[in-house]
Amino acid sequence: MRRPRVWLACGGLTLSLLLGACTPPPKPQTVPALSWQQRQARLQLLNKWTFSGRLAVSVKDEGWQASLDWRQDHRHYLLRILAPLGMGGVELRGDVNGVILTFDGDQPPLHAERAENLLQAMYGWSIPVDQLRYWLVGVPAPGTQASVQLDMANRLLEMKVGPWQVSYQRYGHYSGYELPEKLTIKRPGYRLRLVISEWQI
To answer: Got the DSSP string for 128-154?
Structure first.
């Protein structure tokens, strides 16, 4: 008379294992999307980061491509731009005291108070570098007037700041932040396309 009890015990164990195996796993907790105001405030405080990527610049009828490494540490920044096929590179370093543009090779470095003035004098075009650091993370610079268009997750799709138009094609997740991976910055006669391969926060 003991065998039925053993069988029932084993059968009960088997049934419980089967039921446990069929129980669906708990649903992952969903993180509520940030409002635009929350996202903007959070990203404007993000002041230390690094990224690597590639850029393509078109100015009127001319264009060029290069790799770009950007390191931002509060108001200090370092940009390393390297042209393909051994064509050399430049390094732009700036802080509140001014900017320095250095070149691969024997050309002496150039100094200026603002990066915009230096770029205009050297290449005939400029971009607001002080604002660009914010555009790159997906927000307008603090204190600027911007017209924005958002996606369903309250991320920037498009932003207009003065003559500049910034559009965002792709975002990625990095250390708890949603950051742009593909964007285009343009104004009449000028266009910059940037594809970011890696962010480090």
So the answer is: -HHHHHHHTTTSPPTT---EEEE-TTS
Mean pLDDT of 8-35: 49
Please state, in angstroms and rounded to a whole number, the distance separating the CA atoms of residues 199 and 57. 21
Indicate if the pLDDT at residue 38 is higher than 70. yes
Strand positions, DSSP E, 39-163: 48-59, 62-73, 76-82, 89-95, 98-103, 110-112, 147-150, 156-161
Listed by start position, the domains of the chain span 36-200
Average pLDDT, the chain: 85
Q: What percent of the chain has pLDDT over 90?
A: 66
Give pTM, 2 decimals: 0.81
- Is 177 within 8 Å of 47 (Cβ atoms)? no
Q: How do residues 152-165 score in pLDDT, each as one tens digit?
A: 999 999 999 999 99
CA distance 150 to 144: 17
The DSSP output letter for 28 is P
The CATH H-level superfamily of 36-200 is Lipoprotein localisation LolA/LolB/LppX (2.50.20.10)
Burial 54-73 (b: 16+ CB within 10 A, else e): ebebeeeeeeeebebbbbbe
Over 50: is that where the pLDDT of 46 sits?
yes
Residues 110, 104: Cα–Cα separation, whole Å: 13
Report the DSSP pairing between strands 76-82 and 62-73.
Answer: antiparallel
d(CA 142, CA 80): 25
